[in-house]
Design goal:
Elements (H helix, E strand, L loop, with lengths): L2 E6 L5 H12 L2 E4 H11 L2 H12 L5 H13 L7 E4 L5 H15 L5 E6 L2 H9 L1 E3 L6 E3 L26 H15 L3 H5 L4 E5 L4 H13 L1
Parallel strand pairs: 1-3, 1-4, 2-3, 4-7
Antiparallel strand pairs: 5-6
Helix pairs in contact: 1-9, 2-3, 4-5, 6-7
Bound molecules: adenosine monophosphate (AMP).
The site of adenosine monophosphate has 17 residues, from α2 and α3.
Length: 216
């Protein structure tokens, strides 16, 4: 069974590569960003608390996100393998995850994949990103445009730009990534379970390397 953790800046391809792994390995994906966006959309207490941080491109407090994650991992669907996308993002979260997995849930991370992409390319990828509010499919104005400009290929919905995919929020998200998130990689390198990849390469080439790693 595989339990995968993706590390990488926003727009490094974690979502795209997760879709490939889900298709081929039958695992579930747990994305804290998706959980929080849904909470904001639903107007729940969690969403109200998280919204301002998210719009500004800042991390929501560790205590809040650790609670969310611990509840989510208790759902029985994680037992056949999972991909974590967007958590942990700080050392405190990484330590909390270890505790959740090892003590409470008896799981362990089997593979950590770090997608490395230069900031200039991240800007291009993120500011051109558009998504369908109905089905969640993600497009890019230049790299993966929909057949009809601004419209989802699958359900005809008008595509939207995420609140935090603006240039101002993105520069904060990248700063947070370099200051907090990037420093957790060594914690996993010590365990010998990290594969670092050039996330600027063709997505299919990136996935071939991921597959070889997961099958090894
Ligand atoms: P993402 O879709 O993973 O880029 O997450 C979108 C936003 O949700 C982030 O910019 C944060 O505001 C918040 N968020 C998601 N995951 C976490 C996390 N593990 N810790 C703190 N904030 C998070």
């Amino acid at each position: 069974m595989i339990n995968v953790l993706f590390l990488g800046a926003p727009g490094s391809g974690k979502g795209t590569q997760s879709e490939n792994i889900i298709r081929d390995y039958g695992v579930i994906q747990i994305s804290t960003g998706d959980i929080l966006r849904k909470a904001v959309k639903d107007g729940s207490a969690l969403g109200k608390e998280a919204k301002n941080y998210m719009t500004q491109g800042l991390l929501v407090p560790d205590s809040l996100i650790v609670g969310v994650m611990s509840e989510r991992l208790k759902g029985g669907d994680a037992k056949n393998g999972f991909i974590l996308d967007g958590f942990p993002r700080t050392v405190v979260q990484a330590e909390a995850l270890d505790e959740m997995l090892e003590k409470d849930l008896k799981y362990r991370l089997t593979h950590v994949i770090s997608l490395e992409v230069p900031d200039e390319l991240i800007y291009e990828r993120i500011t051109g990103r558009r998504s369908c509010p109905a089905c969640g499919r993600v497009y890019h104005l230049k790299f993966n445009p929909p057949r009809e400009a601004g419209i989802c290929n699958f359900d005809g919905e008008k595509l939207i730009c995420r609140d935090d995919d603006t240039e101002a929020a993105l520069s904060k998200r990248l700063k947070v990534f370099h200051e907090s998130t990037a420093i957790i990689k060594p914690l996993y390198e010590k365990r010998g379970i990290v594969l670092s990849l050039d996330g600027a390469a063709e997505p299919s080439d990136v996935y071939s390397k991921i597959k070889a790693f997961l099958d090894s």
